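Box S2. Input/output pair 1.
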Amino acid sequence: MESESVIELFSIGTELTLGQIQDTNAYWIAQQTFQLGGTIRRISILRDEFDEMKEAIQGSIERRQTRLIITTGGLGPTPDDMTVEMISEMMGKDVIVDQATIQSYMERRQLRDRSEVSEALIKMATVPETATVFQNPVGWAPCISVVVKQSTLMMMPGPPREMQAVFEAYIAPIISERFSAAGASVRVYVDSHESGVSPLMQQVMEKFPNVYVKAYVALREENRGMPVDIVTTGSSQDDIELLLQESVNYFREIVTAQGNSFLIETKQ
């Protein structure tokens, strides 16, 4: 069942599409968002290519019910950092230098004169007109927020340490306030092949529409079997905990009825 308000996430960086580094940011953000009650509908990786980025973000805004769009990357001082310019053009706005951010730079670097602020810092302080700017608690590129139609865009820096600090400070409270779904999950291990477990997983999801079941064939363990995640969502924590227990019990019942072992391991 689709949430009335959903989130889309864009990881920006050609190095990601080339496989030079892993997109650990998206993995971490998805985990945090689920725990906060948000629903991520789509996660995309984009090259540092202006028109492709613009087309992708515009498409997200036009998709029904997209209320929060999160981007990571493209806020640095190098020529391939184009997120701010792209968003500004898409909105039909000019870019401006945020003076509060410049002041923050001067205070943190103990600079006495505006002329001492480097071009790199000035570029990272450049934001779209009408943007709300949140200072980066552990780095230089700030978190930038704009509103386009029904969507709020939150732009975060790409370095994981900075992204996590910015997310926890500014984006997590927004997700907690705007999104009401609660979520819970448990991992179980089934000593069976995927072909045998898949029909049983489908039975669980048909019986419980707000339950998602996912098997991880590549993570199979010799002593425990194949790991399977059971994830529930609902309007209250009590409801989803009860739903999780009911769905786990049902899954155990139909798995063991076929003579397969079933082990529960609560996620940490």
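Box S3. Input/output pair 2.
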Amino acid sequence: VFAGGDQTICEGDVAVLSGATQGGSTTSVTWTGGLGSFDNINLLNATYTPDQSEIGSVVILTVTSNDPGGPCNPVNDQVRITVNKAPEVFAGTDITICEGESYLIVDATTGGSTTSVTWTGGLGAFSPNATTLNAIYTPDASEVVTTVSLTVTTNDPTGPCGAVSDQIDITINDAPEVFAGGDQTICEGDVALLSSATLGGSTSSITWTGGFGSFDDINLLSATYTPDLSEIGSVVILTITSNDPAGPCDPVSDQIRITVNKAPEVFAGADMTICEGERYLIGDATKGG
């Protein structure tokens, strides 16, 4: 009997004993050895499935001939099966982030025969580089409101095991945007028209706050603000805040400064009747504001 040439296989594969041969007075064979399993121990070209405990080790299998009639004894031969560890890699758990954020791929892992990895995919940037397992990915601006699939691939180890890869999906949500408008100066008695306020991104509603005066509608983008009497001659700061969109993005806000100038005031004095030739001192005329 001849057990065949020694083999090296990869974790997860089976050893096909196709090189085994028999001759002479051999009429049957039996395979033994290892902790795994044979598809048929009496089949010359059997297959052997290694046990999990044999990964990363050498398994010795023995083929033995039957005992023929007469003085000849059974014979045997051995084959060495080297079971290489396969490379392993996990890209991490899928995640949703907000526009403007970078993501540290903190739960990416390697195992088996992996000694290095390379990240590919996306239009953004990996930091410090694409060969760092737990890299930071900064999305490109064009990837907002999309899902980016990043692939991590192991090195190709020596032997029959090939490189393996895994993917992580990063969804980039649109951030809310608001702009309160340009600062204004109004006169006492006037209202501030917030007509230059804008919204964008994932903002679907807004709320105005601030000041001691009143808004015609705090949820109206182009609201009007009527200052309180106590705010005359001062600067009022009004804040516009977006709604809190679903997902990881937080509300955002912006401010506008409304300067309320005092109006000029003047009083000419009370009406008066005088006699011809007299002069009148307008002593009760006043100014203010």
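Caption for Box S3: The chain has a mean pLDDT of 96. The two ends are 117 Å apart (CA to CA).
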